[in-house]
Amino acid sequence: MGAPLPDSDLHAELTGVAQALADAARAAILPHFRTTSLEIDNKHAQGFDPVTAADRAAERAMRDILAERRPQDAILGEEFGRSAGESGLTWVLDPIDGTRGFMSGTPTWGVLIALCDASGPILGVIDQPYIGERFLGGFGQALWNGPRGGGSLRARTGAALEAAVLMSTFPEVGTPEERAAFERVASRARLTRYGCDCYAYALLAMGQVDLVIEAGLQAYDICAPIAVIEAAGGIVTDWQGQTVHEGGQVLAAATPELHAAALTHLRG
Question: FRET pair for 3, CA 20 to 30 Å: which of 62, 164, 179, 180?
């Protein structure tokens, strides 16, 4: 084994791997999108948790790249679970976040790729293959690119809760109690919208919306959005203001002031 890379070189290598993972996932997923032959399985015996061949193909493609380029790292993927590593770094993969949207033909699903160390997410990618937009945050970068250009990501500032745009994936949010807490915030916001899955977090990092509030998330749902939003100047915690990279109840906010206001109402 050679000498350790300087931080700047290591960061460039890891960013390059993340980009390669996103490229591979795009190539694996797009042949399945908006096709009439898409087969959908249900992972949840008591409800509906869809998975498709595209989910599995994308995660396999990303794991193949990691086996070649970063075999020393651990992996946590939604479809194929955990693989051990020895570097102290873990790649957290959600090959299609928003499979319900994917199977419905909406372009609001995305590929989530995060790199975590013991402290939590340090690099994240939110990629929307069909639109061709990619959002990346970490190692001093907060960038987006797409078919109409690209630039820096920056969460917007200055919006009070009464002027805020709030997003969540499901109208019911979670349990009845969680829904009631969400409504205390939503009733004070200017506008509430639903259904965008991970794309809502990208919009927050881009400065288009101000809050995302959700419940019942897993680590692979939120690690990449945490890295992207924090790189763009926003804040992501649980509903108690604590770290949330293991999943659960999520509050993402554009500013500390908006985060504090939302927390107050979530707590009742």
Answer: 62
Query: CA 22 to CA 7: how far, in whole Å?
Result: 22
Q: Give per-residue pLDDT as tens, 204-231.
A: 999 999 999 999 999 999 999 999 999 9
**CATH number for the segment(s) 161-266:** 3.40.190.80
CA dihedral 223, 229, 231, 233 (to 10 degrees): -140
pLDDT category at 41 given cuts 50, 70, 90 is: confident
Closest by CA position to 195, among listed 217, 214, 180, 223: 214
- Please name the residues in contact with 122: beta carbons below 8 A apart, sequence gap of 6 or more: 115, 116, 138, 139, 227
For residue 48, give both structure tokens. Answer: 């509906």
SS3 state of residue 182: helix
Q: Which of 162, 157, 131 is nearest to 144 (CA)?
A: 131
Classify domain 7-152 by CATH architecture: 2-Layer Sandwich (3.30)
